[in-house]
Amino acid sequence: MTDMPMIERPSPNFDERASPISLLVLHYTGMPDAASALDWLASPESKVSAHFVVCEDGQIVRMVDEAKRAWHAGRSHWRGINDVNSASIGIEIVNPGHEWGYRPFPEAQIGALIPLMHDIVQRHGITRGNIVGHSDVAPARKQDPGELFPWGQLARLRLALPRPTRNLMDPLWTDSAFMLALERFGYDIAEPEAAVVAFQRRFRPELIDGVIDGECRAILLALLLPKPRGDE
């Protein structure tokens, strides 16, 4: 358990894990403000929770003990894991989200998130490929933490996979071959366009159109190589 300073706001919404921790899932709260998000996550009626909430001013709130299974990911999948809640730590990052006025994440907030993530990743041995957004594990349902989230900043600290940028080569896959490669990388491809959008939101956020193009193919190929080449 982390010994970082934080506020305790226990949520009743948890149960027992069925598998060891191997994932870290990042979310935005998607509610008008921090107070309403915390109230919702702490309400028995909501049936949702997270292990930690990071507020915009950098305050960290602990809601569920890491040893327990918080209810943050819902119906989700990543790299063969279907019970993502059992295998993950969930962090909610306060942001209104696409519904309430999506905006950049403040410096103080990311400044608090980074050491929290580092602590969790070190203690549980979570690999960079298993540090994901909610949209990565539930592409048909979710958009968070979204295209404004600073994945590149985290990647430079080895807290996420980097976006490949060097020596990119288009493998000229067919669309069906791209989808098979995307599934191999980790995504649920049951809804192909949603999976492509989620991939773009994470690895090519400047153009999210659901269209498989040469740049998408080249980025995915580079990610599947033994050592991704990116902006580290």
TrEMBL record:
InterPro entries in alphabetical order: Amidase/PGRP_sf, Amidase_domain, NAMLAA_amidase_2, PGBD-like_sf, PGBDSf
Pfam families documented for this protein: Amidase_2 (PF01510)
Source taxon at top rank: Bacteria
EC identifiers of the protein: 3.5.1.28
Catalytic activity: Hydrolyzes the link between N-acetylmuramoyl residues and L-amino acid residues in certain cell-wall glycopeptides
Matches recorded under PANTHER family: N-ACETYLMURAMOYL-L-ALANINE AMIDASE AMID
UniProt protein name: N-acetylmuramoyl-L-alanine amidase
Originating species: Sphingobium naphthae
